[in-house]
Every structure is written in structure tokens, then in C-alpha cells.
Amino acid sequence: MKYLGFILANLGRNKLRSALTGGAIMLAVVLVCLLLTMPAGLNAILDHAASNTRISVHNKAGIVYAMPYAFTRKVRQVDGVAAAVSSTWFGGAFEEAGRVTFPNFAVEVEHIGAVYPDYPIAAEQLADFQRYRDGAIVGRQTMRKYGWRIGQRVTLRSTVWPVTLDFRIVGEIANDRAPHFWFNREYLDQALKAMGRPGLTIAGMIWVRAADPNRVNAIMREIDDMSRNSEAETACETEKSFLSNFFGSLQGFVTIILIVTALVALCIVFIAANTASMGVRERAGEIAVLKAIGFGRRVIFGTLLAEAAALSVVAGGTGVLVTIGLTKLLQTFATWNDTLGPLGSFIVTVPVLVDGIFLSVFVGMLAGVVPSYGAARKPVVESLHEVF
Amino acid sequence: MDAPSTAGAAPPIIVIRNVSRRYVRGVDDVHALENVSLSIPTGHFVAFMGPSGSGKSTLLNLVSGIDRPNQGDVMVAGAALNDLTEDDLAHWRARHVGLIFQFFNLIPVLTARDNVALPLLLTHLSKAERRERAETALRVVGLDERMDHYPRTLSGGEQQRVAIARAIVTDPDLIVADEPTGDLDARNAEAILGLLRQLKHDFGKTVIMVTHDPRALRFVDDAYHLDKGILLEGEDAERAAAAILMAAGGGAAAAGARLGR
Fold first, then answer.
1. Which of A12, A289, A379 is opposite residue B86, by nearest beta carbon?
2. Opening angle at CA A331, ends A330 and A335, nearest 5
3. Phi and psi for A296 in degrees, rounded to 5?
4. Residue B3: what pLDDT?
5. This prediction's pTM
6. Residues in contact with A223: Cβ distance below 8 Å, sequence separation at least 6, in sequence order
7. Alpha-carbon dihedral of residues A185, A189, A190, A196, nearest 10 degrees?
8. Which residues of B touch A301 (CB under 8 A)?
9. Residues A203-212: pLDDT tens digits?
10. Residue B206: helix, strand or coil by DSSP?
């Protein structure tokens, strides 16, 4: 600590250069933290959205292949299953949008609440969902997008089934990120039968809630065993795994983000190392004098390295604070304006902040170590000869 | 005229025996010092003089533990410097040697007080003790009014006084000055030489100085003359001293006695 004043005084010797170098490191930390929030945000969304007791059951051949609807009842009888609901893709296009712009599914209204107890849906709205055959529960994100409100009627034209259905919005999933549109599967079943078709005999997916998280793996095994050698073998996976796979295309994007992050960090190491080298070179005379008056190699190395590290840590800490402020600002903008919605996904988690601080320390140490070592290891007489 | 003798004087603080120092500079093998032997009593003010390339700075570096000889022994303040490692030498210099340079070499971002306190960072003294000692040293050199000034706001003479304060703040056995008046005007040069002599008189310090400045002869106890790496003795030393005085425009008579001891 006794060298702190000396180190800080040296940092202030060329204020503009220190400020510019610190600014570069700070911006790099902001950039890296923002980039890292994307995978971190994705994980946070998955952690938030995915329950550790919910299981996805779908056709082993892929989620576009259906399963017999009757299989849902069998699944409910599996030991440890608290609830199960079938969910069938409707592919409904909102007439004003002209295409499918949000996910909409035919579900069993009497089971949906039991499978998604963690979804913020009012009890009376769930009751209305069961009461009205044409009722629909819609995620807040979609409600906001189209300016819908509870009680409003909307019409969806299916791109999968030969029907166009009129719905009454009876409830809302009070979650800013929820785009879902759920409606009664019997409504679709009856509409199909009214057209002389056999009705809705399939289930696109079955969502299961296990009573005990420790039983999840056993339940998944039992369900898959139950469907083995049938015409629709199933593949069970946890909700998080399912969502993660569903967003699998993002993994490549995440990899690119991480590569860019590493390159940004490397660039900053070079910038900081250049600054540290210039600083050491400019002060070669002073360093020689310090050695001559008795500053040992360890002290010289330590103080020079501490200078680089101190600048980087201060810049990194500022960068982290700026990141927090910036993401809060982006989230606020995203709330005001739906077109900025993706910006709201910048979620600064504690690990991201730790990564930012770690990066700045790493940059400081790496940038400082070579010039500091070079200055320290040279014998005092050589140092003096070079400058005097 | 013989080289300065130490007969009847205080015990030697510096004993140099058969010291040689050679450098390789490019393709040249430079013989900076050749078989030099001398001893300097404690509490003396001594000058190493000679033309550029004579080896006086090399001798100063050996005496102050900055450099090591290729051959011979250097004993200073009871320590055999040849036996010490680079780190040990740094530690030894911090405790036993105060260094003064021609161009002052103060740290521009530190005040006079902080510059003086710099060597004390290597001690176990508290911040308050370091501050107190630095202020005392600045008072000794007459700069008690300029403690909070940065080097750029001080004159050359004042900067050299700060450098002297930095050299004495650890209360070293030996003060070593390399051309301390080389970058000063006549008035400041005399003042600095007087201050170095005062350190010897008032505090009993041994002061070793490399200089071209003939004025130094009026202040020092002994002057050693070197030429081409060889310590001059007898008539050679006398001729070298006379040449310095002639070049300076006289004063030989005033300085002759000193050189003749």
C-alpha cells in the first residue's frame, strides 16, 4: 500500500494518454459485457421460462410429426406425473398481419393450468378459459404487439388446418416475454368435425409436469419405453433442453459472439501493452535512477505492473458500471417501443460482470507484464548507460 | 606528487585493490579501468577527476555498488561488493549509499517532499516518519519553503538540492555524486559544492564526487586523477591537476596545497 501514491502519481503523469487508454479498455469491457449478455440472456430466459419439473414429449422423428392424441391419457397415468396437456400447432395467421406472427396452439383447457402453475395467469381467467369454448389466453408480448385487450375478439386463419376461427380473449399470461396464444382444442376439434373431418385426433406435443423433480428422468424413460415400437415413438426431454434445442440455431451466433469477444479482448491487450511499453520507455531514465538508489527488481516490476493493472481495473470497473446503466436504458427503451424488443434481452448477470472485471485485470496484467519485466530485469549499470 | 595518502587519517570506508573493468562495446574491447588500487578514509570529501573516458564514472559506479569489476576487490563500508548479487547490491545501496546525478533526475510527478521520501519507501518507516525525515532532509539543504513544489517549478540549483536531500534522507554512510555541478551555473555550482562539504563537516559523511569542475578542488579533501583507466600518481597526477587549473584560468596556487597532500 505504501507504493500506492507513487503508482497513482505515475498514472497521472500523462493524463490524456491514461484517459484514452482507460477509455479504450472501458469501451472494450462494455462491448464484451454486452456481447456476453446475449448468451447469458438466453440462458437466463431459459432458466426463467423452463421449469425443472416440466417435460416435453414429442415424436422421436421431430417436432413437426404428431402423436396420437390418445397417448396423452396414457402419459397422465405414468407414475409421478402430476399433469399433462397436449398442445397442437394451429399455425393461425392474424388477419391484419397476414401471416403467422406468434405461436398459437390448441390445448386442453382443463389441464393447462396444472401443467403451467408457474405462469402468471389469474385463476378467474383460467376459469373463463374453461367456460368459453372459443376462449383464448394470450401472452402479454402478443397482446401489446397488437394492442389487444381482454374481452376482444380476434380471428385467426389456420395455415395448417382448413379452418378460420374466431376467438374471445379471456386471459393474459402476465409475462412480458410470453408470445403464446392458447385456445381450446375442442373448439378446433368441433370445427373440423363440422367440416366432415374426423376431428383433432393428434397431439403435436405433450407437456408433462412431474410431481417430484427427482423423478423427471425416470418419467422420461417410462414414457419413451411406453411408446417404443409404436407408430409414433416419443423422445422426452426437459423443458430447458427442449427450448435450448429449439433455439439451437442461436448457438452458432453465440459462438461468433464469443469469438468476437476474444478478438476485442486481444485488441485491447495490444493497445494497453503498447501504452505500457511507451510509458516504460519514456521513463527509462527514472527507472534507472530508481534502481540506482536501491529499488530492487521485484519492486520495479511490481510497481510498473501495478500501474498497468490499476488503470485497467479502474477502466474495467467503470466499464461494468456503464454496462449496467446502458442495459437498464435499453430495457427501458424496449418497454416503450416494441420494435426495440430484442434490446431488452441484454440481461447483465453477475457472472457477466465478473467476466468484465476479470477481463480488465487480465488485460492489465498481460499488457504490463512484458514491459515491466523488461525494465526490471536489466542490470542497473546497463540501464544507466542507456540513458546517461 | 603522490596520490592522496590516508596515513594518519580515519579508517578507510572504501578499499579498492587491483580493480580492472573492461566492457565490450560493439567490436571494441574497452579497458575502462586498469589495476586501480586506492583507499578512502571515512568522512573525507573526495573528487575523481579526469577527461572524458578516463574511467572516473566507472570507478564511481564500482564504489557505489552499481557496477562490478572484472578483476580485483571492492570493499565499501565493510561489505565486499563482489560477493553480492544484483538484488543484494540494490538492498545494500538503499541502506549505505546516497546518489546524486548531474541532471538531478527527480520524478516530475512527485513534489520535492515526495521525491526526497522516495528511498524511504524501501524502509519499514511509517508514512508520518517518512514525511518527517523528508522534511528534515529538505531543511538541511535549505529548501524548507519549497517542499510542496514540483521539480518543474524549481530552479536547477534547487532541483539539485532536492536530489541531495534525497541522497541523505536514509542517512547513508557514503554520498556519491556524478558531476553534481555539471548542469548548474557558477553560483549554483559553488553553492552545491559548499553544501556537499557541509554534509562532510556537519554530519561526518564520506562524499565521493566525479567532476570536471576545477572549482571542486577548493572544496575537496583529496582529488584522484584518472586517465585512460589508470589512476595517476606522483608527477603525472600533479601535471593533470595543473592542466585542469590552467584550463580554468589559474588558481593553481590556491589548490596546489590540496593536490600535494
1. A379
2. 115
3. -75, 170
4. 46
5. 0.66
6. A55, A57, A75, A78, A208, A234, A236
7. 170
8. none
9. 999 999 999 9
10. strand
H or E element at residue A27? helix A15-49
> Which candidate from A3, A295, A381 shows the least CB-CB separation from B61?
A381
- What is the predicted pLDDT for the residue at B254? 47
Dump pLDDT digits (tens) for A286-321. 899 999 999 999 999 999 999 888 888 899 999 999
pLDDT attached to residue A46: 64
| Residues of A with Cβ-Cβ distance to B59 under 8 angstroms | none
Please tell me the distance from the alpha carbon of residue B92 to that of residue B79, in angstroms, as a whole number: 9
Chain A (58-87) residues lying within 8 Å, Cβ to Cβ, of chain B: none
One-letter amino acid at A315 equals: A
pLDDT value for B214: 86
Interface touch A293/B99, C-beta < 8 Å? yes
- Which of A208, A175, A186 is closest to A75 using CA atoms? A208
Residues of chain A neighbouring B166 (CB-CB closer than 8 A): 293
- Give the strand pairing for B45-49 and B206-211: parallel
Q: Distance from A308 to chain B by nearest Cα, in Å?
A: 17
Q: Give the residue extent of every domain in chain B.
A: 42-55+85-260
CB nearest to B90's CB, from A12, A13, A291: A291
* 3-class state of residue A71 by DSSP: helix
Distance from CA of B199 to the nearest CA of A (A): 18
CB contact under 8 A, B87 and A298: yes
Residues contacting residue A324 through CB under 8 Å, at least 6 positions apart: A348, A353
- The angle formed by the CA atoms of residues B50, B52 and B56, to the nearest 5 degrees, is 50
Tell which of B92, B100, B105, B179 to mutate to test the A interface (max A CBs under 10 Å).
Answer: B105
Cα atoms in the 13 Å half-sphere on the side-chain side of B167: 32
Tell me the pLDDT tens digit for each residue of B106-165. Answer: 999 999 999 999 999 999 999 999 999 999 999 999 998 899 999 999 999 999 999 999
Q: Is B53 exposed, middle or buried (0-12, 13-18, 19+ CB in 10 A)?
A: middle
A-chain residues near B101 (CB < 8 A)? 289, 388
Residues of chain A with pLDDT under 50: none
Phi, psi torsion values for A264, nearest 5 degrees: -60, -45
| Burial B54-88, CB ≥16 within 10 A → b, else e | bbbbbbbbbbbbbbbbeebebbbbebebeebebee
Q: DSSP state, A166? A: E
H or E element at residue A157: strand A153-158
- Inspect the interface and report whether the beta carbons of A294 and B122 lie closer than 8 Å: yes
* Range B42-55+85-260 has CATH code 3.20.20.70: no
